[in-house]
Amino acid sequence: TKALVQRLIDSKLLSSCQQVFDAFDESLMFRMPATDDGMASLKSQFKEVFHNISGILDCVSCQKCKLHGKLQLLGLGTALKILLSPVDVVVTVLSRNDLVALVNTIAKFSSAIQGAKALAIEYWKQNLLYSSFVDNEKDKDVAGSVDIVVSQPLESFDVSSSKGTALMDTALEMTSKLAARGLISLEDEENLVASILARDAGTLLLAKHYYDNPSRFAQFATLSDPPAGTRDAAYDGVIIGGGLAGLACALELLDAGARIALIDKQGVFGGNSAKASSGINGVDAVDAQNRPNEDSVESFLEDCINGGGLSGNGIPGGNHLLPTLARRSVDTLEWVRKRGKIALDLVGQLGGHSFPRTHRPKDGLAGSEIVVALEKQLKPFKETGQLTVMKNTKATSLMLEDGRVTGIRVENTKDPADNREVLSANVVLATGGYASDFADNSLLDQYRPDLRRFATTNGKFSTGDGHKMAASIGASMVDMEHVQVHPTGFIDPEDPTSSVKTLCAEILRGVGGIMLTRNGQRFVNELGTRDYVSGRMLEVDPEGADFVLLLSDEMAEEAAKHIGLYSSKGLMSHFDTLEDVAEFLSDGGNVTAATLAATILGYNRDALGGGDPFGKQVFNHVPIDATRGFWAGHVTPVIHYTMGGVAVDSVGRVVRDDGGVIGGLYAAGEIVGGLHGKNRLGGNALTEAAVFGRVVAEQIMAGLERRSRETPEPTKAAVAPTLRAVTLEELSTHGSPDDCWLAIDGQVYDFTHFLEDHPAGVEAILQFGGADGTDGFLAVHSLSLLDEFEPVGLLATDGA
Question: Residue 249: which of 429, 404, 458 has the closest Cα?
Fold first, then answer.
């Protein structure tokens, strides 16, 4: 130990603490002959212990024991860093956490703990508060007495008393556990440790009486802390919900260096995102044949506006969120591919879309594949401790202080008695919708009681938890009456009255599937919007709402993954002939093979003519060969998605009814209201989740970066002499596609040659050309994105 600590001291990192470390009786730590190979022997011993602990750690089932083991392992690992690194670089490889773990580990190796008393005395001698406790000291060493429950006068807590030491040990143990679980901030941890080591009377009394309630101990011991809005929180961000919105937000925050917690009340991540199988919408630069794409951001936005019934509301872009959804779909699709390392090679056209823009992988279903791919990218951050994952953990309420959210209260879904508070500078609600909220006085009861008769495609977890928590602290709610009834939920022949049904993915209609009444007649444009198709179904069959979706073998081949899944569940069946299909339809209907043949013949004729009586203009895999095989299944309208939810501004900050922002609170994904209007287009659920999960993360990091720039560091003034001043008048002359300058955060950039390469398209930059685009940039980006660009000047201030 002497050699180890001396090497640490020689690194200059702790040179001022040498007298403190000399207080240890080093001979009690290791008994090793002072030979030339002593350091080599020490390295070998540490390596052996390190590998022994790491080899068995995963076999430990007790979480508390595993936590202690990990702390010891971190301490041993720190020792190896010191021993194996050159002395002059030790200072660069050790963090504060490394040093805390090292001292903790050294103190527990053997009888060296006996040296702790001498070390404590050396510390207290240098502490101003020491005199208030040692002036009247009496050596009353009551060996073995560790009773911290029975009251005794404060004067008896002298430095040599085992009772005083026990209180310190209890307080430090509570503090370390609270810090390890992220329940107190770094500043709180430092303040508590300082108070405990200084033998602060109030802190030790709290430890004595609240030893069985660590959270209360910390709450009362930090009452004098600064307001929550100004203190450093335990996490930079806490994300509630592990669907695509939560995963996208988490990964972006982690990549930017934030320390976060990701919480889900289920035992697995994914939520309804994992069930979305048709794909994720995004405008690609090229089409499926690698040709320049006729699709555009503008076309996508127009489809969303029309599909949501927003075309006549007089608001440019439909609302303040849709333009971001359409524009950011470009770079978000690429982000999902590259950051998730997932190929999305197939593209389809769903109802309400003017072009094929719904992307999915060849292997597996889109939602689950994307969720799994992104979750894999989280693992390295879990291993380093930058990410804390809390599954089977339900958020029960938001913590509010002076109008700002400062954290959340959670409970273990396996053990409701296990509840605690989690502090964070930012909280992101990514809790999904309320399409399974069928309890008494549920959100569906409040806003759409008429839909009670429909089954749902959502998991049981979709109960509007986030909506309710946000509303309880004054968040505004919008469009809560807009609940999407999807036209095609499978009727399971084994359980036709089930209240939860498997969604028949819209891609089956996208590849050419046609919908038939039980009499074998077409009645609808299968590629119409969801509300239109569902409405037609309820007009034709208001009571039973029982229809058949029919695909040719050729159509089924393009959606092979879906067909395989549905057939394995007994929801779709294969038929060799039209006679077989007619028999299938006749169960509850009245149809013949001749009727089906006439329907198919008419459909082929309409496709050849470019349109049918229902307005359909896109026909895939036609003409249908009536002599080949078919796939068919029964479908019915189902509750699928809730368009209503929490009101947010353009960067995902939750707002109140008066339009003011609730500090520290964000929302992304299905919980957000006011985006889709009356109806959501197919494929936009995953797009919305990924896009706004990232937008929220960028906004959070921009705030954290602004805060960090307030700390001492080189300022922009240091580089001002090398950059010329650019006036607003001069800047205004550089606003064309051939000469495009922007001012962002006081610096001027020339983006002329970057316009065509910008993931979100030329217009996203050009709209701010020749002007100050700081607000527009920060609405969707963080300033770190500018690191690769060299400014051409500084924006001149008034009078410059």
Answer: 429
Per residue in 484-507, pLDDT tens? 999 999 999 999 999 999 999 999
Mean pLDDT along residues 720-747: 85
pLDDT at 135: 39
Which DSSP letter does residue 441 get?
A: T
pLDDT digits (tens, 9 = 90+) for 335-371: 999 999 999 999 999 989 999 999 999 887 899 889 9
> What is the SS3 assignment for 6?
helix
Question: Is 562 known to be catalytic?
Answer: no
Q: What is the DSSP letter of 363?
A: S
Q: Are 215 and 418 in contact (CB under 8 A)?
A: no
Catalytic residue among 328, 337, 353, 509: 509
- C-alpha distances (whole Å) from 548 to each of 231, 275, 557, 581, 619 are 60, 22, 19, 10, 18
The verdict on whether 509 is a catalytic residue reads yes
Determine the Cα–Cα distance for residues 634 and 113; give it in Å rounded to an integer: 73
Q: What is the DSSP string of 717-765?
A: GGGGGGSEEE-HHHHTT-EETTEEEEEETTEEEE-GGGGGG-TT-HHHH
Token pair belonging to 196: 């405990």
What is the rounded CA–CA span in Å between residue 166 and residue 143? 11
Say how many C-beta atoms besides its own lie within 10 A of residue 671's C-beta. Answer: 29
Cis peptide leading into residue 759 (ω within 30°): no
Structure tokens at 556: 């089924």
Residue closest to 237 by CA, chosen among 771, 704, 800: 704
H or E element: which one contains 393?
A: strand 393-401
Distance, CA of 520 to CA of 702 (rounded, Å): 58
Which residue in 60, 57, 82, 96 sits closest to 4, CA to CA? 82
Give every CB contact of residue 673 below 8 A, 6+ residues apart in sequence.
477, 478, 479, 480, 643, 644, 645, 646, 647
Question: Please, where are the H alpha helices in 551-665?
Answer: 553-558, 560-568, 578-585, 593-609
Which stretches of 181-271 are DSSP H helices?
186-197, 201-209, 214-221, 244-255
- Please provide residue 627's backbone torsions phi and psi, each rounded to the nearest 5 degrees: -90, -5
Lookup: tokens for 632:
């068919």
In terms of Cα–Cα distance, which of 478, 468, 466, 474 is closest to 668? 466
